[in-house]
Amino acid sequence: MDYLQTYEYWKADEFFNETTRDELSKLDPVADAKEIEDRFYRDLEFGTGGLRGIMGAGTNRMNKYTVGKATKGLGDYLIVTYGAEVCRERGVVIGYDTRNNSKYFSEVAANVLSSMGIKVYLHSHARPTPQLSYSVPFWSAVAGVVVTASHNPKEYNGYKVYDEFGCQLVPWQAKQVISYVDAVTDYKTIDFSGNRTLIHMGDVTDNFICAVLKQSRNRDKDSKENLHVIYTPLHGTGNVPVTKALLLDGFKKVEHVDAQVSPDGSFPTVVSPNPEDRRALLLGIEQAEKCEADIVLGTDPDSDRVGVAVKTAEGYQLMTGNQIGALLMDYVLTHTNLTAIHNPAVVKTVVTSELGAEIAKKYGLTVFSTLTGFKFIGEKITQFEQAKKAGNPEQDYTFVLGYEESYGYLAGTHARDKDAVVSSLLICEMAAEYKAAGKTLFDRMNELYDEFSYYKDALDSFTLKGKDGLEKIAAMMTGLRGGDAPFVDAEQVIDYSVAVDAEPGFGKLPTSNVLKYILKDGSWIAVRPSGTEPKIKIYYSVKGSDRDEAEKRLMQIQDTIKNKLGL
Prior knowledge:
By secondary structure, this protein is of the alpha/beta class. The chain has helices spanning 3-12, 18-25, 33-40, 64-82, 84-90, 102-115, 129-138, 171-182, 205-213, 221-225, 239-248, 282-291, 321-334, 355-362, 374-390, 420-436, 441-452, 466-481, 547-565; strands at 51-54, 92-96, 120-123, 143-147, 156-162, 199-202, 228-232, 253-256, 295-299, 306-312, 315-318, 344-349, 366-370, 398-404, 408-411, 454-463, 490-495, 515-519, 524-529, 535-544. α4 crosses α5 and α11 (239-248) runs parallel beside α16 (420-436).
């Protein structure tokens, strides 16, 4: 069927519920022709990041049926891979965030899996994505699913799959699951009825928080009691675990942004619940100004990312993801007995600033670079642990810290995904220690710049919606690979769409649609279409002798690239 026939089928067939048919019946075939095409021109892609899309009726939307199809394919894969008895015994963990329909979609997934004879551990409450990652090995499950679209606008939702180690599927695993999802060609083969005897409600929040607290580095009770924190969960899942972790760690002055505490998938107080965006932290900053708090923290809806604003002489300033990552690297390494750790290592992504890597190298750690996506950092943790068990010295390292520029960090191995709960704990601990010494996080950041050079990092993200937008993004990448480089002084061009060597002993990196241009002075630019959204992203990391030099050069490079790409 073409997309119009599929539209008519969904609109008329009583297999689809009344809500779905009513929504589609309200579309006008002439006035809403583009809308109908976008809803039905393809199936919502189950990619390496799982599903992510706008909620609504249609094959290219997040709804009961597309979630059911993904879950049926996942269940078929698990039964073939592990066997029906193992799946019935060990089960799958399902978590969800506070977005609209997240709980509903998690229940849909639980019903489909249980109807297939697979046990399900369904989280009792909306909880952070890293808690789902923790929960999978906690319950010895064969897989995990979390329903979230992270920091995307309210119209979106998503569905991510985790392996038995609590790591989001990497490409070779996702490819296998995708083949089973694609094999589900008839929605009527999906049993949505559920088997209640196989669905178990569970909550491991306290266990998760205990694991987070093991990463505490600051034992100075007075310094923690003296730090004044404003925290906002941005209507998401962070409130309970972040607040509890900070209080148990000894922080007394933790205030909440009351208007943003209640879970609400419409995110009524923000344009977008993205802590990378200053606007998301405005209410927190306004509250901090009134009481002269030291620091503002904001976590996104599934609490895997955290944004920070710091009180300075110039007002409250936001820190970038790369800055927070470098500070965490410095703080964790200076508060860890590295001599007691076998082959300590840190992991970052290829679009993350090299400043954190330079700090790690100063302390003698091995630095690993992965493709974009925290799943690759999680995969490294699993590789290190399996190598240790197998007695494989080439891959036998001990994970200390992982981070990426998009505000995601992980200390410890309690999770295999970025964790805003442990990150919030460590950020507050180092802020408390520096305050006791008469400094702020920015003061310490400037000390690192003085030692390692000034790094000016930036990200340009351009949304090109719909089918036409995706085609334009693809054409841009094709043009760049055809020699249409956006600048001329690149000393090296790395095309990750072909296999690139990883660190010795680890073979080659998976392929990815990323181009990275390394300039003569070590600065770099990377161009990457988003794997989950209709966006093309351009990352910049520019080095300079000081801030003015780096900022001036960054602006020149940004203007050149935007003009070349027509953005």
